[in-house]
Design a protein that fits this description.
The chain has helices spanning 11-18, 37-42, 46-57, 117-131, 159-164; strands at 3-7, 63-68, 71-80, 101-108, 136-139, 168-177, 180-188. It is an alpha+beta fold. A seven-stranded mixed β-sheet has the order 1-2-3-4-5-7-6, sandwiched between helices.
Length: 190
């Protein structure tokens, strides 16, 4: 298996990874951290997918996709922190004024997990941010201490995977997800 990571400009492939089975569903579409809360609540049903389609046509696209051949098998959301709700977060601190990028969602399709795809996605997101001029990239994974994490809540990633990719612990947070604290991990790209 050879995994290729490319920018998420193909909307149908993004839909495969983060879209709902029913077009009218009000699921995340990986918008919860990307847009202000008010807009997130206003985007209902098909409007959510239409918004994501616009993001896929924008520069930069909303993240990266992992492919096994022609099949999309993974997604990572990455964007300038200033374009996300992390810019205004009270729970995830700003450690300095560097215009960092945020990596906040890593998703691998069922049937493709435990094959190293999340590691490829993290590496691809780092390269994507670097190619777009990011001086550093941050992630806000769970510090689960090796404990099992429900796959639904593991979308933010786990600390050890980011450490493996060269990220270092930069700060604690007051955010907790699935009973585990989240930490701020950073990788300097300068």
């Amino acid at each position: 298996m050879t995994i290729a990571v490319r920018s998420a400009s193909a909307f149908e492939d993004v839909r495969t990874l983060v879209g709902p089975k029913s077009p009218g569903a009000n699921v995340c579409w990986c918008l919860s951290y990307r847009v202000p809360s008010k807009l997130n609540n206003e985007l209902r049903g098909p409007a959510r997918g239409e918004y994501v389609a616009e993001l896929c046509r924008a520069e930069p696209p909303p993240g990266v996709l992992a492919y096994d051949g022609a099949e999309p098998v993974g997604w990572a959301a990455v964007a300038p922190r200033s374009d996300t709700s992390f810019a205004r977060s009270r729970r995830i601190p700003h450690i300095d004024d560097l215009p960092v990028w945020s990596l906040w969602c890593v998703r691998v399709r069922p049937g493709h997990r435990k094959k190293g795809i999340s590691h490829a996605l993290i590496a691809g997101a780092v390269e994507f941010a670097r190619a777009h001029g990011a001086p550093a990239i941050e992630a806000y994974p769970l510090d689960n201490g090796g404990a099992k994490v429900d796959v639904t809540m593991a979308y933010v990633g786990i600390r050890k995977n980011f450490e493996r990719a060269g990220f270092v612990h930069a700060a604690g947070t007051t955010s907790v997800l699935a009973g585990h604290p989240r930490v701020l991990m950073r990788l300097d790209l300068r």
